[in-house]
Every structure is written in structure tokens, then in C-alpha cells.
Amino acid sequence: MYGLLDCNNFFVSCERVFDPRLNGKMVVVLSNNDGCVIARSNEAKAAGIPMGCPAFKIKEHTDPRQVIQLSARHILYRDLSCRVMNILSDEADNVQQYSVDEAFFVLPHEDVETSHRAMANVVNRVKQYVGIPVSVGFAPTRTLAKIANHIAKRDPRITDGVYWLVRPEAIDIILRRTPIEDVWGIGRRLSASLKSKGIKTAADFVKMPPSLVRSMYSVTLERTQRELMGHDCQIANPVDIAHKTIMTSRTFGKVLTDRDEIADAIVSFAERTARQLRAEGGVAGSVMTYVRGDHFREDLPFYSNSCQLQLATPSSDTMTIVRMALNAFNNIWRDGFTYRKAGVMALDIQHGGAIQLNVFDPEDHGKLRRLMSSIDSINDMYGSRSIKLAPGLQRGSWAPNQNHFKPLSKTLHFYTGMIDINQLQETPKGHFEDDEEQDNTTTEYPDMP
DNA sequence: TCTGGGGTCCTAGGACCC
DNA sequence: TCTGGGGTCCTAGGACCC
Predict the structure, then answer these.
(1) Domain boundary among A206, A240, A274
(2) Burial, A296: exposed, middle or buried (Cβ in 10 Å; 0-12, 13-18, 19+)?
């Protein structure tokens, strides 16, 4: 039996913790660059604003003046996420965090009643101590637990925010009511294809011969089907598996043409990638840099390219990663094009320290490791940009647009104790939204004094 | 005017080998 | 005219997720 705990409208709920005036309003949280809607309040969902909706298209769905738009503050969301997961871990076993706002787990109790009480307790404690509403679904497989969770979230008659989808007859009824596109693992393309064959609900899908599903589509889809039938296939088991790739990429706030400005961005991306690599205790075997134009601008010549370079010895040292990223960038840079996005990716990541040293490699790796660990300590202590590489100290003209920050309530002081509010005062260009908090911009509140 | 970021897995096809 | 069979490994691209 799997449990799935999922935070309701997570980013919006986080914002509401610090500003109760957002309750009952249409609220959306925007992606980097204030580009797309990545979280919606129930009110915004009811108005028909879809997930991923470009901010400038909100007006196609509802009066945009009634919608409170907020730039994302991921560091805050991660902090609250940790608190939710900690409370869950008090009651549940084998907690596997699947994303920032959801986790699979199992319960130690044998009987449903005790389990239900334990989970109702978690839901209440999270609401009380973190301020975030959560829902829990239980089912024999993860794919069914996803469906159970949706029901817990949507149906107000579900008591305590916890729904059990266990009895075969109940599963049968629910599958008949579940549109095929709502099944975890069946996205836009697959659902369109299945519908064209008359498969409209999860129940229709389950009736297909599994061998046909595999031959017409893939083993992945066949696994999804078997999970719906109640056979645990461990799909998308995210469990403690260390990352295989780590990427940092951004869409620039504007189209860039200057090589040095883009190199500046590459350095920042590489630094951040290296830092994350070290935080996970991994080393990268190769580094990839990519650049691309703006594919929405048909009036500009489009260019997109990437280059992956192998390291002589796998490394997580900032200077090495930055150097490789810049070398790769130099290989793909073309004059005369415009650039809107770039990224740096660490690949072939190894964990656990069994690194094969290259005897021809002149670097003193012990020394580098000590230097990096000192830099990390200083940045942890004094703020993440206290020490950077000199090439990263440029203009930051690539910085994304984020014009919808609202001042954080002073209650943040009392609340987290983890975020240094003094760091919130300045908003230098060319840094990352999760490095520090911002800002002084005031958001207009419709219908608010 | 304005369209995110960071991941995973699978498959097909090509290069290469014996 | 006729052009094997069976592997492996790698890569690019497509699908999905939140």
C-alpha cells in the first residue's frame, strides 16, 4: 500500500502563509522571467487559467486585474517543503520525496483505521505548524495513489483530506470516472493517440491487451497500465537515486548579442552547477554548454547549438567546471546571431569518491577540494555570493525579469529563522532567485486597500 | 511588448565488431 | 541478379513528470 502526500496549490499556499490577504483571491505564481503560470489558487483554476499559461495570455481567460501575479521565491518554497516532509516522516516509513511538494511513503500500521488516524494527524499538524493544506491518497500502486490523491484534493466530502482507494470494486468505479489524460504517465500526445482509438477513460485503457499496449506504444505505458490494474511496477521510483545530470539554465531577460555578456551568464551557471554537484557529493565526468536564440521571434535568424566536453578527471571544482563550460561555449559561439537562453549541464556524474585519477592530469585534486570546501563554508556562513570567481562579477545583463515580487512580511523573521532577512534588501543583477530573497517592489492588489 | 527550469526513461538508428 | 546474423555502445530525439 502506497501513500502519496501532496501539498495543495503549493507555491500559492506558501505565499498565503505570509499574506493571508491572498486567501480567497485568484492568485498565480509565475515562472522565472515572469513567463508562465506555475501555480494557481483554486480561484484561478476555476477561472480557467491553465497550468503553464503564459502570463500575457491570462487575459484570454479572465480579467487580469482580478488576478494577483507573483514572482516565484523558490528558496521559501523549499524551506516550507522541508517542514512538511519532516512532519510526514514522524509518522510514515520509507518517505520518498518525489518533488518539492509531494512524497510517496508507506505506513507502519497494519490496520486501516490506525493508519487513517495517523495520516489525519499529519494533515492537521502540517496545517497547524506549517500553514500548508495537504491531501493524502492511499492505493496499492503509485499510479493509483496519484488518482486517490486527486480525489482527496478535489472532493470536499473526503474526511480529513485522506482518501483510500483499495477495494477492487471501488477502483473499478473510479477508473471509469477517470479521463485517460488524468492518468499519471499519460500526457498530451499519448492521450490524444489513445482517444483516437476510442480509449477515453482509465477503465477503457485497462481493458486493452497489455501486449498490444507494449507493441503499439512502449514498455513504459504498459507499466502504467499494469499499475492501474493494481500490480506494483515501481514506476518512476525516485528513491534516493542520486542525480545523473545537474543543469542550470535560464532564459535571459532580453535578447543578447554580446559574447562577453553571455559568457558572464555561462560562468554563473557553471558556478551554480558545481556548487550543487559538491552539495550532492558528486563529480562530473563531462560538462555541456548550450545556447539558443528566441524561438518565438520569427523575425530573427535562429541559432541553437550545444557542446559537450569530457574532463580529464571527473571533478566538482568550480574552476574546472567553469573552464570547461567556457571552452564548450567558445566552440559553439557564432557571431551575428541573437541569443535568448543558455545553460550548463554536468553529466556522467559519479558519486561516492571512487574517482579514477588521471596520471597526466596536472591538477592537485586534494588542494582543490580543500579550497572548494572552504569557499562553500564561507558562502554558507555569509551568503551565497560572498566569494565568486572573478569572471562571474560582470554586469549580469542576462538577468531574468522578475517584476512581481512583493515585500515579505516581517513575520518571516519569526517564522523561519533560517533566511537572513538582511539579505533581502538588495537585488543585484545576475544572480539566482534561490540565492537570496528579494525585494522592494510592491505588487498591486486588486480590491485591497 | 510579454511564452520556465530541471529532471527521468525509452527508442530508433548508426557505427562498429566478429 | 545476388548483398549474413548477431551483438554492443552511443547519441539524438521524443515522451513524460512537477
Answers:
(1) A240
(2) exposed
Measured from the CB, is A337 under 7 Å from any atom of strand C?
A: no
Please give the Cα distance from A345 to A291 (Å, whole number): 12
CA of A307 to C1' of C9 (A): 20
Residues 6+ apart with CB under 8 A from A202: A147, A175, A176, A178, A179, A180, A182, A183, A228
Please state the pTM of the whole predicted model. Answer: 0.88
Residue A401 Cβ < 7 Å to strand B: no
- Kindly give the residue spans of alpha helices, DSSP state H, lying in A242-364: 259-279, 318-332
Could you tell me if residue A352 is left (phi over 0), alpha (psi between -120 and 50 degrees) or otherwise beta? left
Question: What pLDDT, in 10s, does the model give residues A272-317?
Answer: 999 999 999 999 999 999 999 998 888 888 899 999 999 988 999 9
The CATH number for A363's domain is 3.30.1490.100
Residue A308 near residue A347 (C-beta atoms within 8 A): yes
**CB of A411 closer than 8 Å to CB of A365:** no
Q: Average pLDDT of A341-363? A: 76
Name the residue with the least CA to C1' distance from nucleotide B1: A56
Given this model, what pLDDT does residue A88 score?
Answer: 97
Bridge partner list, A137: A4, A163
Q: Are residues A266 and A171 in the same domain?
A: no
- Total residues found in chain A within this entry: 449
Same domain, A1 and A119: yes
- Let me know whether A368 and A314 are in one domain: yes
Give yes or no: residues A221 and A252 share one domain. Answer: no
Mean pLDDT value across chain A = 86
Q: Do A250 and A357 lie in a common domain? A: yes
The CA-CA-CA angle for residues A73, A75, A79, to 5°, reads: 120
Q: How many domains does chain A have?
A: 3
